[in-house]
Amino acid sequence: MSINFSEDPHRRYNLLTGEWVLVSPHRTKRPWQGKVEPIQNGKRPTYDPNCYLCPGNERAGGKRTHKYTSTYAFDNDFGALLPHTESSNYQNGLLQAKGEKGICRVICFSPDHSLTIPQMQLSDIEKIISLWQEEYQQLGSKAFIKHVQIFENKGAVMGCSNPHPHGQIWAQSSIPQEVAKKSIQLKKYWNDNKRSLLHDYVEQELDAEERIICHNEYFVALVPFWAVWPYEAMIIPRKHHQHINQIDSDEKIAYAKILKDLTQRFDKVFDTSFPYSSGIHQSPTDGKHYPEWHFHMTFYPPLLRSATVKKFMVGYEMFANPQRDITAEMAAEKLRALG
Question: Right CATH number for 40-85+95-337 from 1.10.3470.10, 3.30.428.10, 3.30.1330.200, 2.60.120.10?
Fold first, then answer.
């Protein structure tokens, strides 16, 4: 007998990490009596004199933000990684540690304090992508940088302490474990098939259509079959590109369009400025050749039932493996209908 994805508890395999997620669709009927979050829909000014990311303002560390008029990047005053850390090793019996050096950057998307990506003009989103490309190239060219992680935390519910439109980049001297797990899976498929795993996955999803949110000539936005977060989504280039700097000018425009399209749909789900963590995974920058890598952008939004109810990763998820109630197909259908 086949699995009824909309009724039966089942596990789904994440082909990018080799891990599993438990799906429990029957639990969508259960009542909610847990914590609710405050709605974050207050209108913000275009300039906030107390915001350290607004042009010309003094930051917490005493430095002053430039009076920028477009996108802008600077070294994080309180970076989690530092460029002059000693690369020393510690070994004491079973205990190990290694010094880790790196560079943390802040990426201001716009001088306008009131905006989020779905509210920006396409030309301004293209500038964000151009800045991501520049930072990936410049940071990745440094001899001690092996990986460049571009990401954004949007919304207070995701721990973002400053609502000004911005993201971050952490570039470091080792390859982080999420990327390492994906490298293993991508390389195994490449060695067996001499094709990109994500290219073949996207083509299969386009044929099925069940988990597709939207797409254009160059990019596809979908809810991955193995999604953990309620409205988790991925943007994947249809061409096999190892990293963001391989896209041409037409693809950059298409990337901006699908990024705006997807995030606008997010905002419509519960009629709120949709919080999420997003990140771009692409080939490491350690000088090695990575033909198996296929860059992609993933979104992890926490909202579950409404603008005030979020999913918590606790209990079983902390001690066993991730679990979700709303299926990937349900989430994709809702996002697809909000175009």
Answer: 3.30.428.10
Q: What is the mean pLDDT of residues 208-227?
A: 98
Query: How far apart, in Å, are the Cα atoms of 272 and each of 9, 43, 104, 238, 327?
Result: 30, 11, 30, 30, 22
Which residues are known to be catalytic? Answer: 166
Q: Model's pTM, two decimal places?
A: 0.95
199 has a pLDDT exceeding 90 = yes
